[in-house]
């Protein structure tokens, strides 16, 4: 699709959703017009024409599809940089000419070229980011930058959103709802470079230092003198809570989402003393910088083709959205919306997308706690059971920022600043009117809004079912426009905040956008005809696609004795086994009860992705009675999908893993809760992505069968 | 120093009168501000190493303390005169006021040549100076600092003597102390960095991107080096620096079109600040006569070394590409040269505004010493940036509004602030 088509599609999508006629100048037009005059024909060694490059989109396609050696051949003749120059993309051409000379290996060159294109895609929008000016403290400027380097993944996403919003979205489109982004400042990657260089931090022997030691070395260093004046003035002028987020070059890039790998710090930023607030922010920035080299990040990076030294960190400082209630601060609603639903159900198709909502701060959703989900295209379609189910499984507690927390940088998790509050407290704070329904036992029904009797159910009924605000419509539009503009399915993090003043419109604040990994073009894996009694495991709810083979190692939770109260304990045991397996380069299968990667240790083992970065297939076995919505651990799933890992959910009654067989295997290592075993022959996992079904069998078994048939 | 026919005090008073006229100050205010409020002249007997006693003449002049305790350096100089000290004390009042720190102006000195004194004699002189003036200085009255030919060791002797007399810990009595004993982080950088913070804002006003700007610097001392460091850090290019060569008894400027590499130049610089000519040439620097520093095709000139370095004789050597001159040194541009520059529409950021970073950081040191709690370097430099940026924009805005030179605008702001403080106290 060329860029003009894209523009047209975006416009017509907006017009269709909002019913408002658009009259804007073209989104990419200025960039596109230059493209038609000159072209390169890409041919293979035999002179056969493979592709014609006339515009940047063609060029990107070539980078993604053409053989690496052919790309290298054209690069060595500087064909790409010459062409880019001829179409007027001088800046890009300059970048390409350097790397065309620098790289001698096709794959590396291709990766680098793709990275540069990606950077460029977003950079089209950077005009919407102004350089931070302290003389005119204009509060309407939402996004500004300090430093002159790259913004990193997250901040580029925010810049991109700023562009979409200012270009396409007008206040009249969604009555009662104002769409915006939070006031943000980006410290670009050159600040990081100069910090590392001036403090001699590149000489640290990071692989032999603990995270705490690395953090304290970074904390003792000084931020560059070039930026602290601007930073201080920003802090002086804001006393809203701040979130200091990593925005690294590799993070959230289309190919390797590093979501959740680096640190984020949430600061109450409450003190009346500018000095104290400034110091906290400086420390938080240095901590985020330090997290580039933490063990978690180093392990993760090992599982990718990149190297720690490729990484550069920009930092995004965002004002936290919300209102102050007593000593707590939180938005009415936090949410994540995805334009592609990996777990479609009922009338909703995968392309219809999905949105998750939670009361309070978004930790509940991102970490896989209980939240409410609905399909933005069909908001009223029920995704889950009876009113009683709603009541039983809806959110009972939520996260809020403690404003008076005693804050120290070394208690690095969010627990020091976040507090889990009971939903009743939100009722006292008066924020539930629009987000809750009431369940009445006597007629087993849900009624939108709050009543004196009955149980509070956080089901966002007034919004989702009764359109108190046009949230579903707005999300639908943002997801569609985002996906069209980026050319990939997208995931959006957002918050909804109601003003205390009823006459003010509610705000939908978009915090972040990132590309989801595009669903693969489905391989044809037909497992319909296989006798499920003869396989090791069968799943009717599987994620991923294709055939995964070559696995001989299995790490599993010893199910017969396992209780979820031990799930935290199991994490470190798994992490150690993962490290050993990764060191020896062995892919493995992970089997265990409940939802993997859940932050709620009662629902499953609360691992994070880096704990199991070497895994190829994950099997979730049933635990207890509670049905668990498997797609809620956003970061975890994002990473999992990008690593092309198969995820199989099994049921007790049908196709559950063959425990007798597992127990019979050779034990390599056994700890309190976890066993590492090895099979005698390779395993083969077939996943039918289209139907969401999968089987696991031993290769030997297949061979035997073939033999018997013969 | 005492040049023939030149009296700094007369010049300072004339400057004041000119601005007082522009501000339409009343006669009483002028009478109060055109002379120092207090002067101390005293003799300091010092037993020399040969057993004899030598009598030195010392001064402390407090020009005005309406805005806060006086602040100013102590100079050891053989040609020191009371008038020089008076002028410098008055300039300190204006300098503190223009960056809006709650301090007044003072200056002190001793007529002596420290080169002729042993370390022990210097110590006795310092302690003697304090014994004579201890009752009239102090953290809440007057806070001395290092100046010409005095250093942090002198300050520590003075602080120690003061504390001995008053029987307590008073680190806030003096500034310019080493970090290990009550000094402030960021003090060495302060003047140079402060200069560049102001330069950065000025360039923004002139729609010039600092990352593409080029500069030529006179000098290679503390101010010049740190100014170069931060300017380069912002992406700017320094094409030339200059220094005095003791051996050849002349100044040289070192030029590199692509931009100097600060680190490599510092490596080949001796402790007096002289760059090794041969090594520099080996590194690809062009060695030119000292006065050539202002002839380069650059956007910015930074005279960071000497008084009177831009005069009516050489002002026309300045390349037409120069848009801005920022004065790190005291009094580097003569009034005649200033007039020429104005006609050429070159923006001149005057010395007492541009190099105020030093006194701002001294003030920070004093605050930290008084509360006996010390800040991080980020805190110090962050606040310095704040102060310098604010001060610049106030001056710039007034200069634009009143259509006067930055120097005049800066004086107008400073003098009116001091006059206002006197008025609020009910003095006038």
Describe the global form of chain B. Answer: globular
The number of E-state strands of chain A comes to 30
**Major sheet of chain A: size, sense and barrel closure?**
9 strands, mixed
Largest sheet of chain B, in brief, is: 7 strands, mixed
The assigned CATH architecture of the largest domain in chain B is: 3-Layer(aba) Sandwich
Task: Identify low-pLDDT runs of chain A.
Answer: 24-36, 518-523, 702-710
The outline of chain A comes out as globular
Determine the number of helices of chain A (DSSP H or I, runs of at least 4 residues). 22
Describe the structure.
The complex is a heterodimer of chains A (710) and B (428). With 710 residues, chain A is α+β, with helices and mostly antiparallel strands. Chain A has four domains: 3-123, no CATH class; 129-320, ATP-grasp fold, A domain (Dna Ligase, domain 1), CATH 3.30.1490; 322-517, no CATH class; 532-709, no CATH class. In chain A, 33% of the residues lie in helices and 23% in strands. Chain A contains 22 helices and 30 strands. In chain A, strands 22, 23, 24, 25, 26, 27, 28, 29 and 30 form a nine-stranded mixed β-sheet that branches. Chain A has a six-stranded mixed β-sheet with strand order 3-4-6-9-7-8. The two termini of chain A are 51 Å apart. With 428 residues, chain B is of the alpha/beta class. Chain B contains 14 helices and twelve strands. Chain B has a seven-stranded mixed β-sheet with strand order 9-8-7-6-10-11-12, sandwiched between helices. The chains are: A alpha+beta (710), B alpha/beta (428). At the A-B interface, helix 11 and helix 12 of A face helix 6 and helix 13 of B.
Distinctive features:
heterodimer; A: about 700 residues; alpha+beta; Dna Ligase, domain 1; nine-stranded mixed sheet; 22 helices; about 35% helix; about 25% strand; globular; B: about 425 residues; alpha/beta; Rossmann fold; seven-stranded mixed sheet; 12 strands
Concise description?
The complex is a heterodimer of chains A (710) and B (428). In chain A, 33% of the residues lie in helices and 23% in strands.
């Amino acid at each position: 699709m060329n860029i003009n088509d894209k523009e047209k599609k975006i416009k017509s999508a907006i017009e269709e959703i909002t019913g408002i006629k658009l009259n804007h100048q073209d989104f990419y037009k200025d960039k596109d017009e230059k493209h038609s005059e000159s072209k390169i024909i890409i041919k293979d060694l035999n002179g056969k024409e493979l592709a014609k490059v006339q515009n940047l989109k063609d060029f990107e396609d070539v980078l993604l599809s053409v053989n690496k050696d052919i790309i290298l051949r054209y690069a060595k003749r500087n064909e790409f940089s010459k062409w880019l120059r001829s179409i007027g993309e001088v800046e890009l051409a300059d970048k390409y000419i350097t790397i065309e000379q620098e790289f001698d290996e096709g794959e590396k060159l291709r990766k680098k070229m793709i990275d540069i294109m990606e950077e460029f895609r977003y950079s089209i929008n950077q005009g919407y980011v102004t350089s931070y000016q302290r003389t005119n403290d204009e509060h309407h400027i939402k996004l500004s930058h300090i430093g002159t380097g790259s913004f990193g993944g997250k901040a580029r996403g925010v810049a991109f959103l700023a562009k979409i919003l200012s270009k396409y979205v007008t206040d009249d489109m969604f009555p009662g709802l104002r769409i915006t982004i939070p006031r943000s400042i980006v410290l670009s990657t050159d600040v990081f470079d100069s910090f590392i260089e001036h403090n001699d931090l590149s000489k640290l022997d990071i692989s032999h230092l603990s995270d705490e030691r690395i953090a304290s070395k970074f904390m003792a260093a000084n931020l560059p003198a070039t930026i602290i004046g601007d930073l201080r003035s920003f802090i002086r002028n804001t006393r809203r809570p701040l979130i200091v987020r990593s925005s690294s070059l590799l993070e959230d890039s289309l190919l390797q989402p590093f979501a959740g790998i680096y640190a984020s710090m949430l600061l109450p930023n409450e003190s009346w003393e500018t000095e104290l607030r400034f110091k906290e922010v400086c420390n938080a920035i240095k901590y985020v910088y330090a997290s580039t080299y933490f063990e978690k990040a180093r392990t993760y990076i090992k599982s990718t083709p990149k190297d720690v030294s490729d990484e550069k960190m920009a930092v995004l400082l965002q004002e936290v959205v919300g209102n102050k209630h007593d000593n707590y601060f939180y938005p009415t609603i936090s949410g994540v919306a995805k334009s592609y639903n990996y777990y479609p159900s009922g009338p909703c198709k995968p392309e219809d997308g999905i949105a998750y909502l939670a009361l309070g701060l978004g930790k509940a959703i991102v970490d896989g706690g209980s939240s409410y989900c609905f399909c933005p295209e069909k908001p009223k379609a029920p995704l889950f059971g009876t009113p009683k189910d709603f009541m039983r499984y809806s959110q009972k507690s939520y996260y809020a920022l403690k404003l008076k927390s005693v804050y120290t940088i070394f208690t690095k998790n969010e627990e020091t600043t976040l507090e889990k509050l009971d939903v009743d407290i939100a009722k006292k704070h008066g924020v539930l009117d629009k987000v809750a329904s009431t369940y009445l036992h006597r007629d087993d029904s849900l009624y939108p809004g709050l009543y004196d009797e009955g149980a509070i159910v956080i089901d966002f009924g007034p919004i989702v079912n009764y359109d108190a605000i046009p949230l579903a419509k707005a999300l639908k539009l943002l997801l569609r426009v985002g996906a069209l503009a980026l050319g990939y399915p997208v995931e959006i993090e957002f918050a909804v905040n109601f003003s205390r003043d009823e006459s003010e419109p509610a705000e939908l604040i978009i915090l972040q956008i990132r590309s989801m990994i595009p669903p693969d073009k489905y391989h044809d894996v037909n497992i319909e005809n296989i006798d499920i009694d003869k396989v090791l495991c069968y799943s009717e709810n599987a994620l991923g696609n294709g055939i995964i083979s070559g696995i001989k190692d299995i790490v599993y939770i010893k199910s017969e004795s396992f209780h979820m109260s031990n799930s935290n304990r199991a994490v470190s045991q798994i992490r150690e086994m993962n490290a050993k397996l990764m060191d020896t380069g062995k892919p493995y299968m992970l089997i265990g009860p409940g939802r993997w990667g859940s932050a709620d240790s009662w629902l499953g083992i609360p691992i994070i992705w880096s704990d199991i970065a070497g895994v190829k297939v994950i099997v979730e076995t049933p635990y207890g009675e509670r049905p668990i919505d498997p797609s809620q651990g956003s970061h975890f799933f994002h990473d999992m999908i990008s690593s092309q890992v198969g995820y199989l959910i099994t049921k007790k009654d049908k196709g559950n893993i063959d425990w007798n067989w597992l127990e019979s295997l050779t034990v390599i290592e056994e700890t309190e809760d976890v066993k590492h075993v090895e099979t005698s022959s390779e395993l083969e996992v077939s996943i039918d992505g289209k139907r969401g079904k999968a089987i696991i069998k031993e290769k030997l078994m297949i061979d035997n069968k073939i033999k018997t048939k013969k | 120093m005492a040049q023939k026919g030149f009296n700094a005090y007369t010049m300072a008073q004339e400057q004041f009168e000119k601005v007082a006229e522009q501000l339409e100050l009343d006669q009483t205010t002028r009478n109060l501000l055109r002379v120092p409020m207090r002067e101390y002249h005293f003799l300091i007997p010092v037993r020399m190493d040969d057993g004899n006693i030598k009598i030195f003449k010392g001064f402390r002049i407090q020009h005005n303390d309406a805005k806060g305790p006086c602040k100013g350096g102590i100079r050891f100089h053989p040609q020191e005169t009371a008038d020089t000290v008076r002028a410098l004390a008055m300039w300190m009042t204006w300098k503190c006021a223009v960056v809006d720190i709650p301090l007044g102006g003072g200056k002190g000195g001793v007529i002596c040549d420290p080169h002729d004194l042993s370390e022990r004699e210097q110590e006795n002189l310092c302690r003697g100076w304090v014994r004579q003036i201890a009752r009239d200085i102090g953290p809440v009255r007057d806070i001395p600092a290092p100046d010409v030919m005095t250093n942090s060791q002198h300050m520590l002797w003075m602080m120690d003597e003061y504390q001995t007399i008053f029987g307590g810990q008073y680190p806030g009595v003096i500034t310019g102390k080493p970090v290990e004993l009550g000094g402030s982080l960021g003090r060495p950088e302060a003047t140079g960095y402060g200069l560049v913070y102001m330069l950065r804002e000025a360039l923004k006003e002139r729609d010039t991107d600092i990352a593409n700007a080029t500069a030529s610097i006179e000098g290679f001392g503390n101010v010049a080096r740190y100014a170069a460091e931060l300017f380069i850090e912002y992406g700017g290019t320094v094409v030339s620096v200059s220094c005095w060569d003791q051996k050849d008894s002349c100044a040289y400027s070192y030029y590199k079109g692509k931009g100097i590499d600060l680190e490599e130049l510092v490596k080949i610089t001796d402790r007096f600040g002289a760059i090794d000519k041969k090594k520099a040439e080996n590194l690809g620097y062009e060695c030119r006569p000292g006065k050539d520093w202002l002839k380069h095709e650059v956007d910015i000139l930074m005279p960071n070394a000497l008084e009177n370095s831009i005069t009516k004789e050489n002002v026309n050597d300045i390349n037409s590409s120069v848009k801005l001159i920022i004065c790190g040194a005291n009094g580097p541009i003569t009034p005649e040269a200033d007039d020429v520059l104005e006609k050429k529409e070159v923006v001149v950021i005057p010395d007492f505004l541009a190099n105020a970073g030093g006194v701002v950081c001294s003030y920070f040191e004093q605050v930290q010493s008084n509360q006996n709690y010390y800040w991080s370097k980020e805190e110090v430099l962050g606040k310095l940036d704040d102060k310098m940026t604010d001060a610049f924009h106030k001056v710039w805005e007034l200069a634009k509004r009143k259509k006067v030179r930055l120097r005049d605008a800066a004086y107008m702001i400073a003098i009116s602030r001091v006059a206002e403080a006197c008025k609020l106290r009910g003095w006038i």
